[in-house]
Description:
Number of strands: 8
Number of helices: 12
Helix content: 40-55%
Strand content: 5-15%
Order of helices and strands: HHHHHEHEHEHEHEHEHEEH
Shape: elongated
Bound molecules: guanosine-5'-diphosphate
Amino acid sequence: MTNPFEKLRxxxxxxxxxxxxxxSRVVARRRIDDELLDEIEQILIEADVGVKATMRLIDHLxxxxxxxxxxxxxxxxxxxxxxxxxxxxxxxxxxTVDDSRQPAVWLIVxxxxxxKTTTIGKLATWFSSAGKKVMIAACDTFRAAAVDQIxxxxxxxxxxxxxAAEGSDPAAVAYDAVQAATARxxxxxxxxxxxxxxxxxxxxxxLKKIRRVVGKALPQGTVSCKLIIDGSTGQNAVAxxxxxxxxxxxxxxxxxxxxxxxxxxxxxxxxxxxxxPVDFIGLGEGIDDLQPFDPGQFARALLS
Length: 304
Ligand code: GDP
């Protein structure tokens, strides 16, 4: 089996080329001056790092160059790696699962196609391998196919699933699932939710309702809301994350499809603009293609 860092490095190869590849070509044998900083700014923006994080990085380069008297363009990569690590480390990582307050309930939200179902399957396997008792609640009762798909992942990861008929009230299914998870002493309940209703406000209202109902069913436990974001959509991912977090208050993000995309810089934008921790990253379609997000390794895989 490939070691996790090697897998991360391979998955981020296109993002790295988009960032480090272009930067290396620009900084070689240059002096750090306004012209070079403009070119670096352009590369960062094009690599989906986002305007805010890009400005912070450029300011950091300017200040450091002044402070240390460095004028060598070749120093730029190390300075960027340092500040990118700082940006992605800043949002405090939410606790994975608090053993003292069982079950932990994770509402998994995000738009259809982003990788919710696959990620729930991966998370179920991840937590099971860590010795946790996992259950899944299939609450996307809006689409019959969604329940079938999640049931396949539950089978693959060998965990129990609570499902209901198409069209039933998702909040009621979630409530029943919490009760079942409590009765069966589960450590964690992963709740799949709908990714599209007739309107965006309907969807947000439904998610809020599920959260409220789960909170009531679980006075002693913890309810987290994890947003699944498709990393290959670049800046759209940031806009989407903002809509969800403003409406329902997510406490962690899972960025999927970082393998094969050149837009992985979006993680830096998410950390800077939303201040939300990235808990896990998705690096493929397989059941083991999930890793806890490690800021230092991410920066190293991108810029060295
Ligand atoms: P949902 O509609 O949000 O439940 O999304 P799905 O879980 O059905 O995923 C949509 C598509 O994205 C499927 O073809 C998945 O195999 C694919 N997918 C999900 N996560 C990843 C990932 O981390 N990497 C890659 N390459 N594909 C992924």
